[in-house]
Amino acid sequence: MGTTNSTLSKIPNVEELMQETGFTPAHIVRLYDRFEALDKEKTGLLRPQDFGAINRLAMNPIGDRIIGAFFSPGQETVDFHSFVRILAHFRPADKKRPKDPSMPEPVNSRTSKLKFAFQLYDQDKDGKISRAELLQVLRSMLEMQVTEEQLESIADRTIQEADLDKDDAISFEEFRKSLEKVNIDHKMSIRFLR
Amino acid sequence: MPALWRSTFVLVMVLLAISRPSLASQPTGNGTEHTITTLPIVIWKWEGIKFPYLVALWILVSWLCKLVFQLNPGLTRVIPESGLLICIGWVLGGIIYGADKVQTFRLQPFTFFFYLLPQIVLDAGYSMPNKLFFGNLGAILVYAVIGTCWNAATLGLALWGCWLGGAMGNIDTGLLQLLLFGSLIAAVDPVAVIAVFEEVHVNEVLYILVFGESLLNDGVTVVLFNVFDAFVSLGGGQIDAVEIIKGIISFFVVAVGGSLVGVVFALLISLLTRCTKNIQIIEPGFIFVLGYLSYLTAEMLSLSAILSCTFCGVCCQKYINANMDERSVSTVRYTMKVFANGSETIIFVFLGISAIDPSLWVWNTAFILLTLLFIFVFRFIGVFLLTWILNQYRLVPLDFIDQLVMGYGGLRGAVAYGLVLLLDENKFKEKTLMVSTTLIVVYFTVMLQGITMKPLVTWLKVKRAAVTERTLAEKIQNRTFDHMLVAIEDISGQIGDNYMRDKWNNFEERWLYWLLMTPIARKSCDPIFNIFHNLNIKDATSYVNEGERRGSLAFVRNESKADVDFNKKFGDDLSEMRPYIMTENMGPDHVPVSSILRDSVPSVCLDMHEQDLKMRESEDFDAHHLLQQHLYKGRKQHRHKYSRKQLEVNEDEHEVQEIFQRTMRSRLESFKSAKMGVAPPKISKHLKKDQPQKMPNGKSTDNSKSHTYGDEDFEFSEGDSASGCEAAGGSFPMRAYRGAGIVNPAFMAEMDTMDPMPPMQQIPSWLAEAEVDSSTVVPSQRAQLRLPWTPSNLRRLAPLRLSTHSNDSFVLADSPATQEGISELPPPPPPKDGQDQGTHK
């Protein structure tokens, strides 16, 4: 317990962070250790290269996009607080905690989980997944197995399925509608750091 | 209801008619052979044929019982089928007993374990939802192994306690024997459970847990049974710590060893189906024979046969489904179901019949009631205990109601009965009591719990299975989620389930696919692509159905407009000439053909010249190819030929399909022009395919309820290079006949598309005419109303047609001959290869 406290004391505003993300002190400490391990230069900030150094991430077809999701637009670095906030998207939703209406929506709610997934597609941040954006993701995930033409027709079809207002792009609302039946909480949660 | 009893009665009469002579004919049977005085024209040969005849008759009777129930749907809604079958078994058994005064027919353990059980287990394994199963494997194993041991131990110990306390009066038993009894009755029966759970449609996690548990714990219970059986044989005095440890080791060796045997056989099956392309007719047979052999082999090695068969089915399904022809897959699927369902029915009927036999029954109220109580109570305690432990580790904890249903779903079944019959009467004095108790337990759980299960599930509001239509968006998104979770685990630096799954997937893709799948199957095994393909097929079918329903899908044999699916066409006519390397080598890059034209190589040049020639004499060619394509073959004699090796002797099938394709095509064409009111865009447009062409199509308030999207961007094939492909493809046969060399249709097609020459020359007659036609068509309201299907659907259809040079499996599978054709041809000159790759995307 001693080490936990000493680590916690190093992090500014740790109470607030825990309140906001719902992580326990043990989680925060684990994540802090991980953060420091990634932060090779000990600057207290992570750069994209630091993420790129994770070997297995390089083999992930959408690894780049995930790394990108850690950095808010225009920023080159991410600090510990933002790091934890991003990871908190993947905490399973907790039923036991009473819902406090005065609080803002927790970061691991269904909507914010979906928003996270949505922005992985929406690289130009215009609030819509265009055909080209979808095609990029598909291309990276299907790679060599399918021909370009098939890829395009898959993309077309996918957009048609979801596209309700016929603007040939998927907005966030449409995105949410198309995944209505999917249990997002199961699909987008990690059994975190037990 | 009267119908039910009447048919039952008829069945029974038939039965009696058979069983009576069997007894009566014995004395006379021998006589006939010796005393032949004259040549008999017909003789009564019942004796020789008796056994197989009875077997076949019993199968028939059992299945007819099932048929009878299905005539009364109201009945099956209340009482599960398994319960009904047992009831009818009672009735049948009663009649037989009444007639014979002795129970002639009984379920023999040997028959059960070697002829009835294997196919059920194999089917369960084969149709197991793999991803769910392996995703929950940990929980399933905990329930199956620890849960079963818990059930066996607690029941045995509790009964022993009561026996010591004198609750059961004076029966000759002991701790070991009671433990043995506990172990044989511990297992939840997959047959009974699935029969009930499938009807109530519980949510998939609960379903897989119960299903997986019941399947695996059968294996476990048999192993436990064998261990305790050995202990009983040894006798109480002989058992020391060493023997107990040996027992535990043997338990694991038998269970794990059995599973391994299954995996080995799964590998064998997968490898075998890699090379059964040429014997498609018996291809499905291999699955059954090897599956059965996996069962027998494990049994021979005294390993767990049930586990072996289960894992064989679970592991091989993915690879054999990919390797085998689609038709073989459905054959396997249906045959498996026929066998499994059939033997399930037989088992339940015989469970009923066996009961009607006074020699089987010894009543000991305390023992039977206590057993029932303990089974029920300890099942619940075990489920709650184990779930509590599991929930500490599960991402999605099982809630209380799920646990209740799991506990209540502890139906016992035929495996317990089969095992109890195996008991040795010499060692086991109270065998009859055990048998009757087992029967009571089976009846009680199957009937009472089975009947109350459905109301309970409704009452408790258990999460039901959501009936989902899998969409592409969902599939893609699921894939993204998987990758995302892996990435996040990597970033947060933990090794979790997703990491393991990712590792396994990589390993599988890298090695197992390479080892176990045919190269073609490997290409098409991507799930996203598969679902895409399936959706397209579904659309095509519904389009045709809808068209037929409205009576507007008549066969229009308009020659000038008609078109042909040339993949099919080539498959028929040019199989020996078509080099299929093309589709294999299609790279993602797209090199303009003109550049290749410049540095073209002699062998290709020949084709090129011919192509030019062809351009100039296009009318001539058109005429020729019209004849080639549109002269239907007359009906051939061999249509009625019978062949053992080949189902598809009927070549006209292709023609029918061709006609179908053609009709579809011209339909689509005319709908489009009618709908749009504009001429189809020029062919020269096809290079710009990144922007979907938006067609102004007025108020398309179509009446298709389900498809409300995508009306505007109705885009037909001219938006893609496929039309160019078709253009060339149409006249291709001609070219091929003239040029003796290897001609690559797909390559040619691409050439046409990209050819810098004026487009009009390449436009095939049908398309050219279509343009003229449609420009004159006035888009009337009526035309719009009469559209049998909406453009949005046509568009959804389009991709299927577009990817004419796709490498998806069914195209390839349709033309196995081409594969062989390749090997017979001289290898194509290397530069051509290069071009193939370059030209093709």
Description:
The complex is a heterodimer of chains A (194) and B (841). Chain A is mostly helical. Chain A contains 12 helices and 4 strands, in the order αααβαααβααβααβαα. Chain A has helices spanning 2-10, 14-21, 25-38, 48-52, 55-58, 63-70, 80-87, 110-121, 131-142, 148-162, 172-178, 184-187; strands at 45-46, 78-79, 128-130, 169-171. In chain A, strands 1-2 form a two-stranded antiparallel ribbon. In chain A, helix 6 (63-70) packs across helix 8 and helix 9 (131-142) crosses helix 10. With 841 residues, chain B is mainly α. Chain B is 70% helix and 0% strand. Chain B is built from 36 helices and no strands. In chain B, helix 1 (2-34) packs antiparallel against helix 2 and helix 2 crosses helix 14. In chain B, 42% of the residues are buried. Classes of the chains: A mainly alpha (194), B mainly alpha (841). Chains A and B meet through helix 3, helix 6, helix 9 and helix 10 of A and helix 19, helix 20, helix 22 and helix 33 of B.
In short:
The complex is a heterodimer of chains A (194) and B (841). Chain A has helices at 2-10, 14-21, 25-38, 48-52, 55-58, 63-70, 80-87, 110-121, 131-142, 148-162, 172-178, 184-187; strands at 45-46, 78-79, 128-130, 169-171.
Record the SSE blueprint.
The complex is a heterodimer of chains A (194) and B (841).
Chain A: H1 2-10, H2 14-21, H3 25-38, E1 45-46, H4 48-52, H5 55-58, H6 63-70, E2 78-79, H7 80-87, H8 110-121, E3 128-130, H9 131-142, H10 148-162, E4 169-171, H11 172-178, H12 184-187
Antiparallel strand pairs in A: 1-2, 3-4
Helix pairs in contact in A: 6-8, 9-10
Chain B: H1 2-34, H2 46-70, H3 73-78, H4 81-100, H5 109-126, H6 130-135, H7 137-164, H8 175-184, H9 190-200, H10 204-234, H11 241-274, H12 283-300, H13 305-323, H14 326-355, H15 365-391, H16 400-408, H17 414-422, H18 431-460, H19 472-492, H20 497-516, H21 519-523, H22 527-549, H23 566-573, H24 581-585, H25 593-598, H26 602-616, H27 618-630, H28 652-676, H29 721-738, H30 745-754, H31 765-776, H32 781-785, H33 791-802, H34 809-814, H35 816-824, H36 830-839
